[in-house]
């Protein structure tokens, strides 16, 4: 029935790992961080999309997460997907992700679409079950992006890619909504590239189509053969800037010195 379909849509969905393409085979060969090339022996991704917020639902994050997972699978990643996740599910998925990366020699990618906020200069990803009545609640009821970066940084020879399409309209109470607009700048461990949907302190668009504006441009550019990861983010910036008439400017932080392309020539 339609009511059953609606109930299912609101139930948190956890999808198991999707096997990577056979073209990217596992190997025990250790590759120094600064020479990781386009085809790494191991590509591993965790993708989270949260749309079903009680007070401020979003249209596109679940669509964005599904689209990103499909794209990453095509690019040879082992992908774990979690949709409409509560805090426990998010933290458990991050822990599992970290265990997969401990062997090193990975291209590790974390993607989140949904609500994200900053409190006292710290960035938090908001689970769908978070009931936040005051600013102090955030640190206990949301997931600090530092937890993700710390988990990914435990293995020193990985390329870590963090993509946060998490700067949409602020879900926090109006009493302090304006004080924590958008996300703050983040410094990740060595070998990390962090892509933000918009510049620090700004808010991103959820998008009028099936995907958010930022993720839509990411999906198309990641599939361009031979395009380096730096060029991907630059093309995304140009596309989003043009589409939003300069209202949304994606931002990238990087400490990666090697070479990587999602799709080699």
Low-pLDDT ranges: 1-39
Distance between the first and last residues' Cα: 47 Å
Strand content: 15-25%
Overall 3D shape: globular
Helix content: 25-40%
Going across the major beta sheet, what is the strand order?
Answer: 1-3-2-4-8-9-10
Q: Helices and strands: which structural class? A: alpha/beta
Give me the Rg, rounded: 17 Å
Mean pLDDT: 80
Element-level helix/strand string: HEEHEHEEEHEHEEHHE
Largest sheet report:
7 strands, mixed
Number of helices: 7
What would you say about this model in short?
With 265 residues, the protein is α/β, with parallel strands linked by helices. It has helices at 2-10, 61-74, 87-101, 138-141, 145-152, 213-222, 229-243; strands at residues 13-18, 42-49, 78-83, 106-113, 116-119, 122-125, 143-144, 159-165, 192-196, 251-254.
How does this model look, in words?
- With 265 residues, the chain is an alpha/beta fold.
- The protein is built from 7 helices and 10 strands.
- It has a 7-stranded mixed β-sheet, sandwiched between helices. The chain has a 3-stranded antiparallel β-sheet with strand order 5-6-7.
- Helix 3 packs parallel to helix 5.
- The longest helix has 15 residues.
- The N terminus is likely disordered.
Properties at a glance:
globular; 10 strands; seven-stranded mixed β-sheet; three-stranded antiparallel β-sheet; 7 helices; 265 residues
What is the secondary structure topology, with strand pairs?
Layout: H1 2-10, E1 13-18, E2 42-49, H2 61-74, E3 78-83, H3 87-101, E4 106-113, E5 116-119, E6 122-125, H4 138-141, E7 143-144, H5 145-152, E8 159-165, E9 192-196, H6 213-222, H7 229-243, E10 251-254
Parallel strand pairs: 2-3, 2-4, 4-8, 8-9
Antiparallel strand pairs: 1-3, 5-6, 6-7, 9-10
